[in-house]
């Protein structure tokens, strides 16, 4: 859909429910059009000197919606903060930000609105209440004017339906939706009717429709005459088309500024075309991203694109637009409301927030009521005249002081931490002063933290039976109010001077402990040591407790037994070192405490405000009138551009790319030469490699093959360092193992290539996997190798996969160089390994290399040995193009990447090519080599190994063994490559999501991962128990585990893998009627699971199961045990060869079904890990197969049915039955589990889950005699009949977890 149609549709739908009406728009005053421009902005971190922005310029006109885009770290947020003069502390900023040609610095906050990404509101208010208070702070004028403005904004932003809905508090009170909250953010900014509106990530967290509606609102606001700028992260295609202009940033530089359509054209010219099925924004952002581990290539690409933009017509236009901004009067900014208006609005908001907050108002009152009741019950009607009663009363009074303090103080500690983000935002928006907020918020707590304390005191006062004279009662209430307000003021002070809420809480505990210990109850205040007694004078515990005690015992006539004897009062007070004359001084001191605490709190808040201020840095000109534009400014701008020669080269490069994309490659590429020379001038030879200088006789293509954990990746690391491609310690080890699963397991899964320049030769290294499951990767590598390094670990010797790799290379006539690794380990016998190589492969000791890849010992001569012994590739540069695809991977933004060996001719960017077998034509977008990351080059010539990107949609188009040739070459003249045999899956398993609601996400993950693993076969499947899923074919069990692990690590998918099985085949009897009627005329069918097993076994002539040839390298003393294991697995023994006096090589032919289950685990356990094995397909063998059925109470459960060889049926049946008995819960009736074979009803294994039963012996109460046994038998008979009836009518409830645990691998 076109951009205009999309906006029109969204706006029309939006207006239907109350938003964006013309009436609402007219209610807002017209804004003065404002042009925002910025010139040569440079932002640098003062401490580190790192540049965040590097000479960024731009301009946006009224009526435009501009989007700032780029990958993480590109500089979007830094540019937005610089334009707003916010969050610049610690940064050095140079350049100018202009509004209508005027440099107004921090004054830009008065003429603009800023809708930040984080939505901060007072959640207890309704939408309209919140906007009304915001209007009192933002809009000067009468109440009628503010009301009209609020209504206009409500209508304009579609908030009328939710205007009386509370905004909501996360986790406490549900409120408005995410889209409504985002529009409410815009509404607050629109109250002041700004000419410029900034938005930070306005679509984050919204679904696609709400995101489009929000962008439609911004577009409408922009088209009403405002200037709107927003940052946005990878918008959808529809959103991308809705912007009027886009600015792409990369590494703090401008990569493009213009319309969305112009951006697509520019990047297409730069060699990064966007396919029709791709999102342009995603492709561009991915192109500009700096990928960890691939920084050199990415920085090279970004530098190339930014230079190309500066010299393109788009960059020229940007410079002209910035220079052409006219000097006009800056728009009038909003003015702050007067102090009284600020105070009244903030006070109203604070009171509403306190009283509507259920965790504050109601909770505090209920808490204090309960505590007052508890204290009253504890000291209920205490005899106040007795000595014990006096102590109890004093204890009750001190507890009341503590209760008034602790709950109040910890409740008030959220005073600033909860409000601080919103306060900072509104303060720096210029809405109010710090004093207005502080006074209003402090006053809002006074009623709340007065009423709750009074409730507690009143309840406790009369229940305890304290003196009930009217004067003493009200004096007690006054003292309690002062105590609570002292705690409140202290909490305010503590929350403002502490940097965070946890710090405030951690300080409050020790301080309260000190103040309470010196409060007069725990220690006599008159007998404290001098070095500690001073703390009592800072404690309101002491003054509050003293005042309450004096007030209680001052009226002696009301105390029974005292008979107006004031000496008893004085003795009671003297016991605590209190004086009866200190009542009102104590009251005065507590009032002074309140005042001092609030003053300190205010000072702390002012300090916090200053330390978090959005300050401009030195060098950033602010609040200075801009001089009339001088003609010399234009000259200086021209002089700051690249020199003419470089500009001409870059322009020529752009034209060449555009020309090449239309007509094919040109005769020369000066752009590549100029960039290469620039890179050489920077002194980094690893960034560029002139592959055109290497003729076929100067090229060697070799690989490294070995058994698992023999050191292939470590040796590859050393070779990369020797060639100078990377520096020692520059990257982490196992540089060519790029997958997380490879690093976690310490194995190589995917073959990797890298080009190594060495002594005038180009050595193309291929690092291959070592496990038998990934032998397909080794086969692909050998397609393009003229030599291999056969690596053997000195501590392990020749292993099974070593032998398999040798014969793979030997069959292809590849030069083999044996290398013994890990010779630095203690106790290794190198001569023993040499003898093994001699006896098995006929290698002479003098041709064996001995190295330590870990330490680098003797590694350097290996490269010389490769050059000397490996033949150059058979290649002819004079013939037309012929390139062989030997591997591929999939990138989500560039499609399939084909790895090729160029046999003949050359392939270059812009060339039109065709696939031999697929007969599809492509335009080459990029060619390059691996160093070890993708590095683009101008062309790949005969004999060279590299990659080709040509907009192939999937890796299925880049089939291994496919031939690429020029479209001008006659297909009949091309000799296809016949040396590669495609590998087919041997192991199959069901793949299902743990949660069925995750099916679509898992489907996308499986499809994406399978694009990078073409050896995986995926067939849709379903299960009534597990839901929708797939039957997936793998090369082996390890391949299956790696695939599952990659799903979890790379796509965060939670999956269930069922037990692996193999493919069986069935030959149908040579009966035309049977074949046509039941099997669609097929003479042979494939069987993957029980559902595909023939229903009538009489139709089958014979069943076939796959066999494998297994090579086992085992210690000689354990050969008997291993042979027994293989015999038990229905194997046929083959040759036995002695490797040396300690180890034997045994060949067995085994059914694949036996190998994929637990053969390897049993072999390792039996030989204590000293045995190794390798296997390869070895045809089919006739076998007796049966379908194993699971019956539960006579009903078959298809999910548990399996296909097993007849000899395995009994063991598998017992295993399934025992698992089901453990997983199925007991029912109210008996549950019978039975495993049967085929159509037979005879049980191979069965068990019974007993039902729940009622204990009738308890009903008899031990009375067995006198008819007790008769009643018991009668009850049991009735129960038995009931259970039998339930068994006939009831269904067994099998929980989903039972299916998971029984079927999982």
From TrEMBL:
<protein>
    <recommendedName>
        <fullName>Translation factor GUF1 homolog, mitochondrial</fullName>
        <ecNumber>3.6.5.n1</ecNumber>
    </recommendedName>
</protein>
<dbReference type="InterPro" id="IPR003439">
    <property type="entry name" value="ABC_transporter-like_ATP-bd"/>
</dbReference>
<keyword id="KW-0812">Transmembrane</keyword>
<keyword id="KW-0067">ATP-binding</keyword>
<dbReference type="Pfam" id="PF01061">
    <property type="entry name" value="ABC2_membrane"/>
</dbReference>
<dbReference type="InterPro" id="IPR003593">
    <property type="entry name" value="AAA+_ATPase"/>
</dbReference>
<dbReference type="InterPro" id="IPR035654">
    <property type="entry name" value="LepA_IV"/>
</dbReference>
<keyword id="KW-0472">Membrane</keyword>
<dbReference type="InterPro" id="IPR031157">
    <property type="entry name" value="G_TR_CS"/>
</dbReference>
<dbReference type="GO" id="GO:0005759">
    <property type="term" value="C:mitochondrial matrix"/>
</dbReference>
<dbReference type="InterPro" id="IPR013525">
    <property type="entry name" value="ABC2_TM"/>
</dbReference>
<keyword id="KW-0648">Protein biosynthesis</keyword>
<feature type="binding site">
    <location>
        <begin position="706"/>
        <end position="713"/>
    </location>
    <ligand>
        <name>GTP</name>
    </ligand>
</feature>
<feature type="transmembrane region" description="Helical">
    <location>
        <begin position="473"/>
        <end position="495"/>
    </location>
</feature>
<comment type="function">
    <text>Promotes mitochondrial protein synthesis. May act as a fidelity factor of the translation reaction, by catalyzing a one-codon backward translocation of tRNAs on improperly translocated ribosomes. Binds to mitochondrial ribosomes in a GTP-dependent manner.</text>
</comment>
<keyword id="KW-0813">Transport</keyword>
<dbReference type="Pfam" id="PF06421">
    <property type="entry name" value="LepA_C"/>
</dbReference>
<dbReference type="GO" id="GO:0005525">
    <property type="term" value="F:GTP binding"/>
</dbReference>
<dbReference type="Pfam" id="PF00009">
    <property type="entry name" value="GTP_EFTU"/>
</dbReference>
<dbReference type="InterPro" id="IPR009000">
    <property type="entry name" value="Transl_B-barrel_sf"/>
</dbReference>
<dbReference type="InterPro" id="IPR000640">
    <property type="entry name" value="EFG_V-like"/>
</dbReference>
<dbReference type="InterPro" id="IPR004161">
    <property type="entry name" value="EFTu-like_2"/>
</dbReference>
<dbReference type="GO" id="GO:0005524">
    <property type="term" value="F:ATP binding"/>
</dbReference>
<dbReference type="InterPro" id="IPR038363">
    <property type="entry name" value="LepA_C_sf"/>
</dbReference>
<dbReference type="GO" id="GO:0016887">
    <property type="term" value="F:ATP hydrolysis activity"/>
</dbReference>
<dbReference type="InterPro" id="IPR035647">
    <property type="entry name" value="EFG_III/V"/>
</dbReference>
<dbReference type="Pfam" id="PF03144">
    <property type="entry name" value="GTP_EFTU_D2"/>
</dbReference>
<comment type="similarity">
    <text>Belongs to the GTP-binding elongation factor family. LepA subfamily.</text>
</comment>
<feature type="binding site">
    <location>
        <begin position="821"/>
        <end position="824"/>
    </location>
    <ligand>
        <name>GTP</name>
    </ligand>
</feature>
<dbReference type="Pfam" id="PF00005">
    <property type="entry name" value="ABC_tran"/>
</dbReference>
<feature type="transmembrane region" description="Helical">
    <location>
        <begin position="445"/>
        <end position="466"/>
    </location>
</feature>
<dbReference type="GO" id="GO:0045727">
    <property type="term" value="P:positive regulation of translation"/>
</dbReference>
<feature type="domain" description="ABC transporter">
    <location>
        <begin position="36"/>
        <end position="276"/>
    </location>
</feature>
<keyword id="KW-0342">GTP-binding</keyword>
<dbReference type="InterPro" id="IPR013842">
    <property type="entry name" value="LepA_CTD"/>
</dbReference>
<keyword id="KW-1133">Transmembrane helix</keyword>
<dbReference type="GO" id="GO:0005743">
    <property type="term" value="C:mitochondrial inner membrane"/>
</dbReference>
<dbReference type="GO" id="GO:0006412">
    <property type="term" value="P:translation"/>
</dbReference>
<dbReference type="GO" id="GO:0140359">
    <property type="term" value="F:ABC-type transporter activity"/>
</dbReference>
<dbReference type="InterPro" id="IPR027417">
    <property type="entry name" value="P-loop_NTPase"/>
</dbReference>
<feature type="domain" description="Tr-type G">
    <location>
        <begin position="697"/>
        <end position="874"/>
    </location>
</feature>
<dbReference type="InterPro" id="IPR043926">
    <property type="entry name" value="ABCG_dom"/>
</dbReference>
């Amino acid at each position: 859909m076109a951009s205009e149609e999309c906006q029109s549709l969204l706006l029309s739908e939006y207006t239907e429910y109350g938003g964006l009406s013309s009436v609402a728009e007219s209610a807002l005053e017209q804004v003065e059009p404002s042009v925002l421009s910025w010139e040569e902005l440079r932002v640098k971190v003062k401490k580190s000197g790192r540049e965040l922005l590097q000479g960024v310029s731009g301009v946006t006109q009224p009526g435009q919606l501009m989007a700032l885009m780029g990958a993480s770290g590109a500089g979007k947020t830094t540019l937005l903060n610089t334009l707003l003069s916010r969050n610049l502390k610690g940064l050095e900023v140079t350049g100018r930000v202009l509004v209508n040609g005027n440099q107004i610095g921090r004054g830009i906050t008065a003429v603009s609105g800023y809708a930040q990404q984080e939505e901060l509101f007072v959640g207890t208010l309704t939408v309209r209440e919140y906007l009304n208070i915001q209007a009192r702070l933002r809009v000067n004028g009468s109440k009628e004017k503010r009301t009209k403005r609020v209504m206009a904004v409500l209508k304009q932003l579609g908030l009328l339906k939710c205007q009386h809905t509370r905004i909501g508090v996360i986790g406490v009170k549900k409120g408005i939706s995410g889209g409504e909250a985002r529009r409410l953010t815009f509404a607050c900014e629109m109250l002041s009717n700004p000419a410029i509106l900034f938005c930070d990530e306005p679509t984050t967290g919204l679904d696609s429709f709400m995101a489009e509606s929000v962008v439609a609102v911004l577009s409408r606001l922009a088209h009403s005459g405002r200037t709107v700028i927003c940052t946005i992260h990878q918008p959808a295609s529809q959103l991308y088309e809705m912007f009027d202009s886009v600015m792409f940033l990369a590494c703090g530089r401008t990569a493009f500024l213009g319309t969305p359509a112009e951006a697509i054209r520019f990047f297409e010219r730069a060699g990064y075309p966007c396919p029709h099925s791709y999102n342009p924004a995603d492709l561009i952002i991915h192109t500009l991203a700096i990928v960890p581990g691939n920084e050199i290539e990415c920085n090279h690409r970004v530098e190339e694109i930014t230079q190309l933009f500066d010299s393109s017509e788009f960059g020229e236009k940007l410079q002209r637009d910035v220079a052409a901004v006219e000097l006009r009067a800056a728009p009038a900014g909003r003015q702050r409301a007067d102090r009284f208006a600020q105070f009244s609005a903030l006070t109203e908001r604070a009171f509403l927030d306190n009283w509507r907050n259920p965790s504050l108002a109601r909770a505090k009152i209920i808490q204090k009521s309960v505590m007052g009741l508890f204290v009253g019950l504890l000291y209920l009607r205490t005899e106040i005249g007795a000595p014990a009663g006096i102590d109890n009363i004093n204890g009750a009074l001190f507890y009341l002081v503590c209760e008034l303090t602790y709950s109040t103080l910890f409740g008030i500690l959220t005073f600033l931490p909860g409000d601080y983000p919103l306060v900072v935002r509104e303060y720096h928006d210029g809405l109010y002063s710090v004093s207005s907020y502080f006074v209003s918020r402090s006053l809002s707590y006074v009623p709340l933290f007065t009423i709750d304390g009074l409730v507690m005191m009143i309840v406790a006062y009369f229940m305890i039976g304290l003196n009930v004279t009217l004067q003493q009662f009200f004096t007690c209430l006054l003292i309690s109010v002062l105590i609570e307000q002292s705690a409140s003021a202290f909490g305010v002070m503590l929350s403002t001077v502490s940097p965070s809420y946890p710090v405030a809480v951690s300080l409050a505990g020790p301080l309260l402990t000190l103040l309470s210990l010196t409060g007069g109850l725990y220690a006599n205040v008159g007998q404290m040591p001098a070095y500690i007694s001073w703390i009592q004078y800072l404690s309101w515990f002491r003054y509050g407790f003293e005042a309450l005690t004096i007030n209680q015992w001052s009226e002696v006539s009301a105390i029974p037994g005292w008979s107006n004897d004031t000496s008893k009062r004085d003795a009671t007070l003297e016991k605590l070192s209190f004086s009866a004359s200190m009542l009102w001084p104590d009251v005065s001191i507590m009032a002074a405490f309140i005042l001092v605490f609030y003053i300190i709190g205010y000072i702390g808040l002012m300090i916090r405000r200053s330390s978090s201020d959005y300050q401009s840095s030195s060098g950033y000109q602010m609040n200075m009138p801009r001089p009339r534009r001088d003609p010399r400014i234009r000259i200086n701008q021209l002089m700051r551009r690249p020199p003419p020669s470089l500009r001409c080269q870059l322009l020529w490069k752009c034209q060449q790319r555009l020309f090449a994309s239309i007509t094919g490659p040109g005769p020369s590429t000066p752009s590549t030469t100029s960039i290469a020379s620039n890179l050489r001038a920077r002194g980094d030879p690893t960034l560029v490699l002139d592959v055109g200088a290497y003729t076929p006789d100067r090229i060697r293509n070799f690989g490294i093959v070995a058994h698992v954990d023999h050191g292939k990746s470590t040796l590859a690391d050393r070779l990369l360092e020797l060639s100078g491609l990377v520096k020692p310690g520059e990257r982490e080890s196992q540089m060519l193992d790029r997958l997380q699963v490879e690093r976690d397991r310490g194995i190589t899964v995917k073959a990797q290539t890298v080009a190594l320049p060495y002594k005038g030769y180009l050595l193309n290294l291929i690092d291959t996997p070592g496990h038998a499951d990934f032998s397909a990767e080794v086969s692909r590598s050998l397609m393009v190798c003229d030599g291999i390094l056969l690596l053997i670990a000195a501590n392990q010797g020749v292993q099974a996969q070593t032998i398999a790799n040798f014969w793979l290379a030997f069959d292809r006539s590849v030069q083999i160089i044996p290398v013994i690794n890990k010779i630095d380990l203690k106790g290794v016998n190198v001569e023993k390994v040499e003898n093994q190589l001699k006896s098995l492969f006929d290698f002479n000791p003098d041709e064996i290399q001995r190295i330590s890849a870990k330490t680098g010992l003797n590694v350097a001569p290996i490269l010389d040995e490769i050059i000397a012994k490996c033949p150059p590739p058979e290649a002819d540069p004079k013939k037309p193009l012929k390139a062989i695809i030997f591997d591929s991977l999939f990138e989500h933004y560039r499609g399939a990447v084909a790895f090729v060996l160029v046999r003949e001719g050359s392939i270059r960017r812009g060339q039109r090519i065709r696939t031999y077998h697929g007969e599809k034509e492509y335009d080459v977008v990029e060619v390059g080599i691996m160093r070890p990351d993708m590095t683009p080059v101008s062309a790949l010539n005969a004999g060279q190994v590299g990659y080709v990107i040509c907009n192939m949609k999937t890796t299925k188009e880049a089939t291994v063994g496919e031939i690429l040739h020029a479209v001008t070459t006659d297909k009949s003249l091309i000799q296809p490559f016949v040396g590669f045999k495609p590998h087919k899956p041997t192991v199959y398993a069901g793949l299902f999501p743990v949660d069925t609601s995750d099916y679509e996400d898992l489907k996308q993950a499986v499809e994406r991962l399978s694009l990078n693993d073409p050896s995986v076969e995926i067939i849709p499947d379903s299960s009534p128990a597990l839901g929708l899923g797939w039957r997936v074919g793998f090369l082996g069990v390890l391949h299956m585990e790696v695939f599952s692990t990659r799903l979890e690590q790379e796509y965060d998918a939670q999956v269930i893998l069922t037990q692996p099985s193999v493919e069986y085949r069935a030959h149908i009897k040579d009966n035309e009627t049977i074949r046509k009627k039941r099997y669609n005329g097929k003479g042979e069918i494939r069987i993957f699971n029980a559902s595909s097993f023939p229903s009538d076994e009489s139709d089958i002539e014979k069943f076939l199961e796959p066999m494998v040839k297994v090579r086992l390298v085992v210690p000689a003393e354990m050969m008997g045990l291993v042979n027994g294991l293989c015999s038990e697995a229905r194997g046929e023994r083959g040759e036995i060869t002695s490797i040396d006096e300690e180890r034997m090589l045994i060949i067995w032919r085994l059914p694949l079904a036996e190998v994929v289950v637990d053969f390897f685990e049993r072999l390792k356990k039996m030989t204590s890990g000293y045995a190794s094995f390798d296997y390869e397909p070895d045809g089919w063998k006739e076998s007796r197969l049966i379908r194993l059925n699971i019956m539960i109470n006579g009903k078959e459960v298809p999910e548990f049915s399996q296909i097993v060889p007849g000899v395995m049926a009994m063991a598998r049946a017992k295993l399934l039955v025992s698992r089901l008995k453990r997983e199925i819960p007991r029912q109210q009736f008996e549950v019978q589990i039975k495993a049967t074979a085929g159509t037979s009803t005879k049980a191979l294994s069965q068990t019974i889950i007993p039902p729940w039963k009622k204990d009738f012996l308890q009903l008899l109460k031990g009375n067995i005699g006198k008819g007790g046994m008769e009643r018991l038998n009668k009850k049991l008979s009735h129960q038995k009949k009931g259970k039998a009836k339930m068994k006939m009518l009831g269904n067994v409830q099998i929980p989903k977890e039972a299916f998971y645990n029984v079927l999982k691998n």
